[in-house]
Request: fold
Amino acid sequence: MIGFLKKLFGCGCQNADFPKRTPNMDDVEALKTFVEFICRRLVDFPNKVSVNVREDERVVALQITCEKTDVGKIVGKNGKTIAAIRALVSGAGGRLGRKALVEVLD
Reply:
């Protein structure tokens, strides 16, 4: 996972809790794990967070589901938190040659 982030953003994460990328993990799975990691750190019920992936030829859509009370924490004030997550995922998707979208489902 850290190698994936270094490849995408040119830096690494020193957090020991950060999930490691396994050798058989593809780029989309690593992106899903990254979004799941971020969202679980933001909410009160981290075990209820799940990220589903819908893939197309050129588009990857990551759908975040969580407790209704935690949706506001992922969206953030005026949508700034989800905008930051979308910016990171969009940048990573661009480096993979695909459009990456993030949706928060209720």
About this structure: Residues 27-42 form the longest helix (16 residues). Strands lie at 50-55, 59-65, 99-105.
